[in-house]
Input
Amino acid sequence: MPVNISTNNSIKPRFFNRELSWLAFNERVLDQAFSEKYPLLERIRFLSFVSSNLDQFYEIRVAGLMQKVDAGIIRPSLDGSNAKELLNEVRNKAHAMSEREYLCWREILKPSLAKENITFKDIEDLNENESSWLRTYFRREVFPILTPLAVDPTHPFPLILNKSLNLFVSLRNLRKKKSKPLKAVVQVPRILPRIVKVEAKGGKGDVFVFLSDVVRYFVSDLFTGHEVLGAWAFRITRNSHLYVDEEEVKNLLLSIEDELHNRRRGAAVRLEIDKSIDKDVLDYLLKSLSLTENDVLKIDGPINLYRLMKLPNLVVRDDLKFPPFEAFVPKRLSLKENLFSEISANDHLLHHPYDSFAPMVDFLRQAAVDPEVFAIKLTIYRTSGDSPIVKALMDAAQNGKQVTAMVELKARFDEEANVQWSRKMEEVGVHVVYGLTGLKTHCKCCLIVRREGKKLRRYAHLGTGNYNPSTAKTYTDYSLFTAKAAFTSDIANLFNTLTGYTRRPVFKKLLVAPFNLHESMVDKINHEIDSAKSGLKARIIIKVNSLIDPEIIKALYAASMAGVQVDLIVRGICGLVPGVKDLSDNIRVRSLLGRFLEHSRIYYFKNSPQGESTYLGSADWMPRNFFRRVEVVFPVEEKSMEAEILQTMEDLLSDNTLASELRRNGSYVPAPKRRKVPFSAQEHLVSLTESRAEKDRLEIRSGRSSRESENQSKTD
Output
């Protein structure tokens, strides 16, 4: 519903631009790669994330801006910028970020690795043993896979796949030395490791070379009778939007597969190429790709630094990584055969990755083999490549259970994996459905129906993160196990809505987008406004990944002007401008980047009734989450759970080590040190987890000793 910000018409809401806010976020990720507070190999991971993030930014956001400019769309965005001006600014900032990214690699991380005897060498700098080993490796592992593609009047410029790494080769026929140079393209094989560890005898430390450099060095082997005049690595990023009209397609699965094929061939939006590229070659590539020099990134280093993500796993150096950390499994959820009775007796809240994701996997595995379980329903947005979640669903179907998997085929950049999972599950009898037309299913819900005596009992899991055991080790998220009828009936209602035909559903406990979530959130903000005007102490604490919904931002501005203290923990994009006089004086925005990716979404409203003041869920505060996705937000009713969540929020707001705060000019600065000593919320939570685990171990030992003493007494 519309929000009246102020009776003073001179005060207008202000907004940060979405694209520029995202670039500011990725700049903060890059800052972590520069930071010496992280172990060296962990800084490599941060650098890799920067590269991957930029890829997706070009594939979606820059591609969208280019389409707007081409279509002549002049309508300004929320912040007042037009597409053409914004595209130029975005390109300039992204180019500057890329240059800083490669500066970090060349001048800081690569030399630092060398000091630790982890060396990245140019092929020309290898010693005799290393060169010999590499020649053998190339002939055995690489050469048989390579396919040179001639480019001439009978062989037009080939269709280069999205984000594939290639070499553009300039050649001359040795028999026709006065003829014009010939052109060819060689794709660097995707199937081979992009970082090659040189296994030569007698070497000291770890020596690596990039696969693209290997192919380039030996590329003349592919063109006998020709002289190689030059070879330059290049990479094309393409528009990766999916264009599927769900109203018009009969089989969504087949349509997604077709569109994935088209995505690899979408319009080019960026060309990354070696800095030393010959101008004539560059002009030829730009013409072939319908790009301009504004779309070119000349790279001084290895193209696509995401390749470095594999490095920490290739080096046995625990001293250069984060200390090992073992997630905690609560004792009551560690007995796999007892999960249903435990959940029946009490709700259980887990905070990943500090708490293990294993109970969720065990929950499904137990359901798959339990003869009293009749049905399992679960949503899948993203999952791991060897998913035990999907395996449990398939086992359950093969054991005769009624299994329904609500798979989101349009989960961006995971579409292909979800298509494959869908086919595998369908083959064993899982009923796979794809949700409501026009809406992505982003909620994280599981429902299990079990016979207990003469009745059927429902058990549920609700979460803020995906059913992905892999990311659950590095993403912070919450999981709630419950058997409360008010929750499970709402979830059953939700699944019926997703799989069948229904009028606008009614939910008792859950807030569900696109039905009632946006309206409910605005109402709760307005309730805090009314509380502040009544003289009560009012506070809102929100933790999300992104905040750009204009109506929500206006409501938060109104709250600030009414005297509500608003604390926002926004990891990525933020369209709200804090600290503006008479508009957002009472709003503080901070972002926290660290060892774990802050992914949980938490919403707290101080003056809401008990059981309705703290919510967890899957939804960020963006128009797409409120109106174009199915999202589930659920209340935390237990006081002890709520207290634990709020303490974690206060810890995040007190972090003066990993956090940064957003200023009204759009810049981020290190969080002020309100404590005299450095405090990291994530490190604090790791420490608490280790203390809980040690306490459990002591109790187990104590219990075992008591039993042994008792047995000894009986013997005596």
Observations:
- DSSP finds 19 helices and 27 strands in the chain.
- Residues 681-715 form the longest helix (35 residues).
- The domain at 512-679 is CATH 3.30.870.10 (Endonuclease; Chain A).
